[in-house]
Amino acid sequence: MSISLQKGQKVSLAKPGGGTLSRVRMGLGWDAVAKKGLFGKGKAQSIDLDASCLLFDAAGNLTDQVWFRQLRSKDGSVQHTGDNLTGAGEGDDEVVNVDLQGVPANVAQLVFTVNSFTGQDFSQIANAFCRLVDESTGQEIARYDLSGAGQHNAQIMAKVSRDGQGWSMTAIGATATGRTFQHLLPAVADHL
User: Fold this and answer.
1) Distance from C-alpha of 172 to C-alpha of 178, rounded to nearest angstrom
2) What is the pLDDT tens value at each position of the chain, 192 positions in all?
3) Which end of the chain has less Cβ packing within 10 Å, N or C?
4) Segment (H or E) for 131
5) Which of 170, 178, 181 is closest to 11 using CA atoms?
6) What are phi and psi of 73, to 5 degrees?
7) φ, ψ for residue 8 (rounded to 5)?
């Protein structure tokens, strides 16, 4: 059963009945809002949203990053499946797979961000979401709606943090500005 997260809400990633998740998938999906063209007809536009996963140690230092220019963490525990340049198609448009058991012990938090590489703001993006899926069962664990008109072109979606022996996910939903994750680092620091 999936939990629809609200901004700031935290959910444990312990499996029902005990144990913790070992492999999760963070999916990002979106559609471009059709622009009004000549004679009021809607015209499709291409919007390139990019999902990134930033790995931080307990002191808040960035230790690694996974994004469209580096599709795999140095240790291989986090992998991006590739860059979707338009958001076309159903379901997840970009996916980041995480082997939670393989994440290095010095990594305390994984922060997931999304930004518009093409620069459009979120007023031009519809049906945007991020979701966390248990890879062993294919079951959606949590979903966070990213839609919401605004002048921002990036969002800090969520973080997955070490929580005792397991992990927990917190929906952040903070707006930001920047075409790549590097521009978002000062805003991300406020949520570590």
Assistant:
1) 17
2) 566 766 666 766 766 666 677 888 888 887 777 766 566 556 666 777 888 999 999 999 999 999 999 999 999 999 998 765 555 566 677 899 999 999 999 999 999 998 888 787 877 787 888 888 888 888 888 787 776 667 788 888 888 899 877 888 887 878 889 888 999 999 999 999
3) N
4) strand 125-134
5) 170
6) -70, 160
7) 85, -10
d(CA 123, CA 151) in angstroms, rounded, equals 7
Q: List the alpha helices (DSSP H) in the chain.
A: 181-189
Burial of 128 (0-12, 13-18, 19+ CB in 10 A): buried
Rounded Cα gap, residues 52 and 45, in angstroms? 22
Please state the φ and ψ torsions of residue 123, each to the nearest 5 degrees: -70, -15
Q: Which amino acid is at 96?
A: V
Residue 182, both tokens? 């590097």
CATH architecture of 3-13+22-31+47-190: Sandwich (2.60)
Helix (H, G, I), strand (E, B) or coil at 10: strand
- Amino acid at the residue 125: I
Spatial separation of the C-alpha atoms in residues 136 and 175, rounded to whole Å: 32
142 and 127 Cβ atoms separated by less than 8 Å = no
Rounded to an integer, what distance in angstroms lies between the CA atom of residue 101 and that of residue 78?
11
Residue labelled with tokens 């471009």: 32
Q: CA–CA separation, 75 vs 60, rounded Å?
A: 19
